Amino acid sequence: MNNDVLIILTAVLPIAEVRGSIPLGLYLKEPLLKVFLLSILGNTLFIIPALYLIQPVTERLRKFRLWSRFFDWLFERTKKKAGLIEKYEAIGLVLFVGIPLPMTGAWTGCIAASLFKIRFRYAFLSIVLGVIIAAVIVTALCLSGILIYKNNVAHILR
Questions:
Q1: pTM beyond cutoff 0.85
Q2: d(Cα 37, Cα 31) in Å, to the nearest integer?
Q3: Alpha helix locations (H) across the chain?
Q4: 138, 23 contact by CB (below 8 A)
Q5: Which of 15, 64, 26, 9 is nearest to 145 (CA)?
Q6: Residue 155 exposed, middle or buried by CB count within 10 Å (0-12, 13-18, 19+)
Q7: Nearest Cα residue to 18 out of 122, 92, 89, 106
Q8: Per-residue buried b or exposed e for 13-29, using 16+ beta carbons within 10 Å of the residue's own CB
Q9: CA separation for the pair 150, 158 (Å, rounded)
Q10: Residue range 102-157, pLDDT digits in tens
Q11: Taking the domains of the chain in order of start, what are their residue ranges?
């Protein structure tokens, strides 16, 4: 599989997002700017469809007991982690998505935007901005780790 496609697909995945695609791209020795941009692209591809489809899809699937329990669990978990969004709405959504921790990415941001009824344009812009912030943080952490590793290896080899 082409590295570009692999980076984009990793960024689309709900758990991985930019937290997984940027380290993967750097591990594959792809250029930093390319990895950064492909990761943002992949992590933002689904936002528009997700914002439009979460509500109607969950309403239909809730007719089935298993799906209803799943969505109850998912939405309850999202609400517990999304106090920032509930309090500050769009700005809270930027911060929520921008902090690269588990269950705080663009996918959860789309669910939270739907739950808290944030208007589409504010939700979309907030989530995209949050993805960019998360990508900057993950990139900085990865580069810091690489520098620390290289310095430690150079120190050991002396």
A1: yes
A2: 10
A3: 3-12, 17-27, 32-44, 47-61, 65-81, 83-88, 90-98, 106-115, 120-157
A4: yes
A5: 26
A6: exposed
A7: 106
A8: eeebbbbbbbbbbbeee
A9: 12
A10: 888 999 999 999 999 999 999 999 999 999 999 999 999 999 998 888 887 666 66
A11: 46-157
